[in-house]
Amino acid sequence: MNHWTRNIILMALMLASSGMAVALRPTHKIADKGPKVELETVIPHAFGNWREEIQASAQIVDPQRQASLDKIYSQVLTRTYVNDQGYRIMLSIAYGSDQSDTNQVHKPEICYPAQGFTLQSKQGGSLATNKGEIPVTRILTSLGPRIEPVTYWTTIGDQVVKSGINKKLVEMSYGLTGKIPDGMLIRVSSIDPDTKNAYEIQNQFSAQMVQSLAPEYWQRMTGIPLQN
Asked: How many C-beta atoms lie closer than 10 Å to residue 100's C-beta?
């Protein structure tokens, strides 16, 4: 094989590879199909023994600058809820309609330290609902005397992802079908030095919240098929 023939073959292979990459690039957002996600209306203002507190004495920690939030997320919902005993839960839900490599949800264990909090611990767990269990992550953070346990989970499309590898595999499975998945990070926290108590109440709050969802949003936020 002479020099010119080899170069022509290499160029043809490069063009074919480039064309294949373009052909396989996801182009259809799953957010454009099915029920539209409007967090303000999807999440009830009251459920179980919880109600939204309009004038909250404990403020949500927004771990990203607004410009960054606007770039990564389509919507961010922040509310504080209070129960009959006066216990407060801070809820933050970040939704992104495009969870491609350039638009990724930011994990609380990264965001909290970026705001000056100390990350004391991190562990996996599960949230029991009336239709199954949701895998969650629990972190314990502090800022001076403020102790803030956090429970969160992340969805890609209609699946809850447990790890970075799991997340990437789910994204690739969507990409192979030409789809760009949306994604959501649901975070609940409370200012409570009694960590065990905080996580128990956060579990109760989260279970009541997801059980109050309309059926069309159930799997999008829990990863659990309704038939279960």
From this structure: 16
The closest alpha carbon to 154, from 117, 194, 111, 198, belongs to 111
Handedness of CA 70, 74, 76, 77 (dihedral sign): positive
Where are the strands (E) in the chain, listed by range? 28-29, 46-47, 50-52, 75-83, 88-96, 118-129, 132-143, 146-156, 159-161, 179-180, 183-189
Which residues does 35 contact at the CB level (< 8 Å), separation at least 6? Answer: 216, 217
Cα separations (Å) of 72 from 49, 95, 152, 179, 182?
33, 9, 18, 18, 11
pLDDT digits (tens, 9 = 90+) for 24-62: 455 565 555 666 788 999 999 999 999 999 865 445 445
Give the predicted TM-score (pTM) of the model. Answer: 0.77
Taking a C-beta distance cutoff of 8 angstroms, is the pair 127, 153 a contact? yes
Residue among 50, 54, 56 at smallest CA distance from 84: 50
Q: Give the whole-angstrom CA distance, residue 155 versus residue 219.
A: 9
Beta carbons within 10 angstroms of residue 54's beta carbon? 8
pLDDT tens column, 199-215: 999 999 999 999 999 99
Phi and psi for 73 in degrees, rounded to 5? -115, 145
Q: Which residue, chain included where needed, has tokens 């956090």?
A: 150
